[in-house]
């Protein structure tokens, strides 16, 4: 979840510095988190340029999905209302069709 939140914050803030500040991280830590996510997904999500980060096609696709996942997790927490402890883990092995529409 931390990786998803970091990626979404970067996209919303537009710079690593502002996103890192929002998340109370250092810029290098945020950069490593996004790079870890890209490594796990085996795709480039962000092109790092002089004008700031720009999303790739896969980055745009992943952003939409990441936002939905984070929204669903927030709703789940609210629905449970503290009645139970929820532990979520993600096996970073995604179905092969995760980016099927993008890579085709």
Automatic annotation (TrEMBL):
Coiled-coil annotated spans: none
InterPro entries: LysR_HTH_N, WH-like_DNA-bd_sf, WH_DNA-bd_sf
GO cellular component, one term: protein-DNA complex
PROSITE patterns for the chain: HTH_LYSR
Keywords per UniProt: Activator, DNA-binding, Transcription, Transcription regulation
Keyword Transcription part of the UniProt annotation: yes
UniProt-recorded Gene Ontology molecular function terms: DNA binding; DNA-binding transcription factor activity
UniProt entry tagged with the keyword Transcription: yes
Domain HTH lysR-type: 1-56
UniProt similarity note: Belongs to the LysR transcriptional regulatory family.
Record-given protein name: HTH lysR-type domain-containing protein
Organism of origin: Nocardia jinanensis
């Amino acid at each position: 979840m931390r990786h998803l939140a970091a990626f979404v914050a970067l996209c919303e803030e537009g710079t690593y510095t502002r996103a890192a500040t929002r998340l109370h991280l250092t810029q290098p830590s945020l950069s490593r988190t996004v790079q870890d996510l890209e490594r796990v997904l085996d795709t480039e999500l962000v092109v790092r340029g002089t004008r700031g980060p720009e999303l790739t096609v896969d980055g745009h696709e992943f952003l939409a999905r990441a936002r939905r996942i984070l929204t669903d997790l927030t709703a789940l927490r609210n629905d449970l209302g503290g009645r139970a402890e929820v532990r979520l883990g993600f096996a970073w092995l995604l179905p092969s069709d995760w980016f099927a529409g993008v890579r085709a």
